[in-house]
Amino acid sequence: MLRLVAADPAIVITERQASRALYLLREFIPATRCDAELGPGVVFTVPHHGVQELGPAIRAEIEVIIGCALRVDELPD
């Protein structure tokens, strides 16, 4: 499982920001399912995918969308 966790634990994002980020994850990983916790403490979860599938450009674009750096974790599904 791929998890993208906002570096700022206090950050909150809008539904629109979450939708834009989830679109990128679905299109470019490609993921059939992914979820977002809007915060505080934003987390994107992509089951059945790993860190190697997340390109640096996608990560950078999501960071721009949410206005915060992301930590990327890989956990067992």
Gist of the model:
By secondary structure, the chain is of the alpha+beta class. It is built from 2 helices and 4 strands, in the order βαββαβ.
Layout: helices, strands, pairs:
Blueprint: E1 2-6, H1 15-28, E2 35-37, E3 43-46, H2 56-66, E4 70-74
Antiparallel strand pairs: 1-3, 1-4, 2-3
Helix pairs in contact: 1-2
Quickly give the CATH architecture.
2-Layer Sandwich
Helical fraction equals 25-40%
Assigned CATH superfamily: ACT domain
Strand count, sense and barrel status of the largest sheet are: 4 strands, antiparallel
**End-to-end Cα distance:** 5 Å
Descriptive report:
The protein is α+β, with helices and mostly antiparallel strands. It has one domain: ACT domain (Alpha-Beta Plaits). Helices cover 32% and strands 22% of the residues. The chain is built from two helices and four strands; from the N terminus they run βαββαβ. It has a four-stranded antiparallel sheet, covered by helices on one side. β2 and β3 form a beta hairpin. The N and C termini lie close together (5 Å). The mean pLDDT is 96.
